[in-house]
Amino acid sequence: MEKSYALITGASQGIGLAIAHELAARGVSLLLVALPDVHLEQSCAELQRKYPHIDVQALPADLTREEDIRAVAERCYREQWRLRYLINNAGMGFTGPYESYSYEFYEKVLHLNVMATARLTRLLLPLLRDHTPAYILNMASMAAYFQMPYKVLYSSSKAFVYHFSLALREELRGSGVSVTVVCPGGVLTNPDVRRTIERLGRLGVAFSLESQQVARSAVRAMLQGKSEHVPGFWVAMYARLRHLFPKGWIRRALGWVFRRKFAEKTYKRA
User: Fold this and answer.
1) Of the residues 24, 26, 31, 140, which has the fewest C-beta atoms closer than 10 A?
2) Catalytic residue (choose from 51, 101, 154, 162)
3) Is 154 labeled as catalytic in the residue annotation?
4) pLDDT digits (tens, 9 = 90+) for 103-143
């Protein structure tokens, strides 16, 4: 039987790697897209060793560069991989006053969180259409639901992913290509993220999950054809309760929380 492939961005660590394990366990071959470093090599070797019955390919790329995105897509067509899953997971998260980050940093964030998802989806959609049933899984964030002070550009970029996914899902209705957007709360992906979540106190920790938990829940939602999904019972409950409060009230409350934890007296200016 011809192998089915999943292309996963940000696949060398964290949620992306965890999703790769979830799909590999289901017999899906993998195209791992990540920065060209030792993490990508190690992840590919680990997956190939653990799942010898599938094919694992490394596609090193910097997704903030349009030429790298095109190169990834061109290789998929050239190799004639039977692409049935596109996992747009790569992204950058950060917290702090808007003025504390440079213009160049924000440009990189937008290229990765917004443009990479839009570009890769557009370039690979014809290939997915050729191998239906097919699935697109876009990783947004709980931040997509809120206007978040101290996460100004991050929450805005994830709101794009959220609306893009649901609009595209409706456009593709009946095509055999399903689109799911996942909006996790805090994800304990690396030491820096863990420290940031711990600074938010018990509530931050309570609303956080391990990468493996998010990946397992996300893949299940994708295969069930759900439109959107929030992993974790308490996080999902919190997401639903947001409709009970005025947006302005929530915005001010978030500003108060983050101001206490992250506000700085001096800012670096671009």
Assistant:
1) 26
2) 154
3) yes
4) 999 999 999 999 999 999 999 999 999 999 999 999 999 98
